[in-house]
Please model this.
Amino acid sequence: MLNRCVLIGRLVADPQLRYTQSGIAVTSFTLAVDRPFTNQSGEREADFIDIVTWRKLAETCANHLNKGRLVAVDGRLQIRSYDDSNGIRRKASEIVADAVRFLDRADSSRSSSGDSSTQDQHESPEPGFDDVPF
Model:
């Protein structure tokens, strides 16, 4: 079986970095990815896709990405269920990123590293279920 997603898009807001109770970094951000066609008005629409990164990759993304940056994300689709504040069962879909490649130049006031990509291959991309911070 195969579950692989490759996306190129722009961040719609700055990434949000959090830490689990056991101290594992997790960052989330949303990518705007253009659809390959235009609507009836001739305008191009976009999909807004939630991305999650873990551990060192999470810290790197939080430190070097900001709203508007163009990135490529390589990861897998994850669908999870949760109960909202009213006790209603909800589903969330997101891409759990294994690699994020920075495709444009960083604002010099925001980034001090010349590294254009990052990948977390030596560790599992996510902790145990009990460590999920949300």
Notes: The first strand starts at residue 5 and ends at 11. Residues 109-116, 120-134 have pLDDT under 50 and may be disordered. The beta strands are 5-11, 16-19, 25-38, 44-54, 70-83, 89-102, 117-119.
